[in-house]
Automatic annotation (TrEMBL):
It comes from Marivirga tractuosa (strain ATCC 23168 / DSM 4126 / NBRC 15989 / NCIMB 1408 / VKM B-1430 / H-43) (Microscilla tractuosa). Coiled coil: none annotated. GO terms for cellular component: cell division site; plasma membrane. Keywords: Cell membrane, Cell shape, Cell wall biogenesis/degradation, Glycosyltransferase, Membrane, Peptidoglycan synthesis, Transferase, Transmembrane, Transmembrane helix. The chain crosses the membrane at residues 12-34, 54-71, 78-97, 150-178, 185-201, 207-224, 231-252, 327-346, 358-385, 391-412. It comes from the Bacteria. This is Cell wall polymerase. It is a multi-pass membrane protein. Pfam families: FTSW_RODA_SPOVE. Its main location: membrane. It is found in: Membrane.
Length: 422
């Protein structure tokens, strides 16, 4: 094979470079979380999370090599089979899995724990890409909307049954793929509107919101008094909005679990119970704010050293960046993630095959959701959801799943020109 045709000359090295930078920075920050100044601790020690994470990183390298060796057609040809296997694992974990932190989402093999729901994101991305690229799917047709949505709703439902609402929420990110492939804007606007109304209901008394909706609807009806169709739509919309407002109390009290209710309370007013349900968010914001412009320095974070922030190696890893590296370090991290996501979208748009393009947008949506929600919850903009920060949070399942998601796209992109000769 000629040098210019080598796979290594066709892969996107910018994306690979950003991947390794994020993984290394994540590993260093995991060490910063567990570092104890009073003890001599080796970053490579397997007794520490940093040493254990190094094993997962080594596993990621093996995964990368395997992906690069595989024929790029494998992912298209076996998309449904991979999806089916993961669905079976999601069912099995409900039956024989181990419950950890209230979620029955884990298979435990001695010291090794694997979470099938992390890999379900990759499998769903493949299946959605396969379905859209292999069928005459038109998302302006209701029957196609229903059929295609099942690929997302089935794993989402199984993950909800495991009690892992945070991971289930990630599947909302697939709306980006569906919208890119022709889903009417009505669904996106409706979903966003419902979310905004839900949040407003937590902040404002329901009676005031209800009166506001009625007044606004009345004004619209008066303006459109000669257009019966618009009047009907306005009245229907007002009834639906009021229905959402009136259902919030029921959802919070009878649908959400106590710890999920507390997370919403912490979002609305963490100061109401700073030593209880508001503790995580309050301490997280203190840690980030205490870093100032340039931070306290690597391994010098006091909030980190005295364990004020729970789950700081996983869900709240961003606190370590804010405290030890300040605004400047946080800016660099956010910039790297933006480069990662923009580059993924660029790769998706330049694909010659529909399968690769759709898969690329699924990857971009998943990374964006994790990035936005994780950082948002550490600064009090979103409720705590147990969603890891890609390549930074401690854990093998999440690291491996993100690695697979990214490098399958890199592999497909490296062969994008070959689809013309298939």
């Amino acid at each position: 094979m000629r040098r210019q045709d080598s796979l290594w000359n066709r892969v996107d090295w910018l994306l690979i470079a950003v991947f390794f930078i994020l993984v290394i920075l994540g590993w260093l920050n995991i060490y910063a979380v567990v570092y104890d100044v009073e003890q001599e601790q080796n970053i490579f020690s397997f007794d520490l999370n940093s040493g254990k994470q190094l094993i997962w990183i080594a596993g990621s390298l093996v995964i990368i090599i395997a992906i690069m060796i595989l024929d790029y057609k494998f992912f298209d040809s076996f998309a449904y089979y991979i999806y089916a296997v993961v669905l079976v694992l999601l069912v099995l974990v409900l039956l024989v899995g181990t419950e950890i932190a209230g979620n029955q989402s884990w298979f435990v093999f001695g010291p090794v724990r694997l979470q099938p729901s992390e890999f379900a994101k990759f499998a769903t991305a493949l299946a959605v890409a396969k379905y859209f690229s292999s069928n005459n799917v038109r998302l302006d047709r209701f029957k196609d909307q229903i059929k295609s949505s099942l690929f997302v709703l089935v794993p989402l439902g199984l993950i909800v049954l495991q009690g892992d609402a945070g991971t289930a929420m990630v599947f909302i990110s697939f709306i980006i793929v569906y919208y890119r492939e022709g889903l009417p804007s009505f669904y996106v606007i409706t979903g966003l509107s419902a979310a905004i109304i839900f949040i407003l209901t937590l902040l404002v008394d329901q009676i005031y919101l209800t009166i506001g909706v009625i007044v606004l609807a009345t004004i619209v009806v008066v303006i459109n008094n000669k257009r019966l169709k618009n009047i009907g739509i306005t009245i229907l919309a007002a009834v639906l909005v009021i229905g959402v407002i009136q259902s919030v109390d029921y959802v919070i009290s009878d649908v959400l679990k106590p710890h999920q209710q507390n997370r919403l309370k912490a979002l609305v007013n963490p100061d109401a119970d700073p030593l209880g349900y508001g503790w995580n968010v309050t301490q997280s914001k203190i840690a980030i704010g205490s870093g100032g412009t340039f931070g306290k320095g690597f391994l010098e974070g006091t909030q980190t050293k005295f364990d004020f922030v729970p789950e700081q190696s996983t869900d709240f890893i961003f606190c370590t960046i804010g405290e030890e590296h300040g605004w400047a370090g946080s800016f660099v991290l956010i910039f790297l993630f933006l480069v990662l996501m923009v580059r993924i979208i660029f790769l998706a748009e330049r694909q010659k095959s529909n399968f690769a393009r759709i898969y690329g947008y699924a990857v971009a949506g998943i990374f964006f959701f994790h990035f936005g929600i994780n950082i948002g919850m550490t600064i009090g903009l979103f409720p705590v959801a147990g969603i890891p920060l890609p390549f930074f949070s401690y854990g093998g399942s999440s690291l491996w799943s993100f690695t697979i998601l990214l490098f399958v796209l890199i592999k497909l992109d490296a062969h994008r020109m070959q689809v013309l000769t298939r």
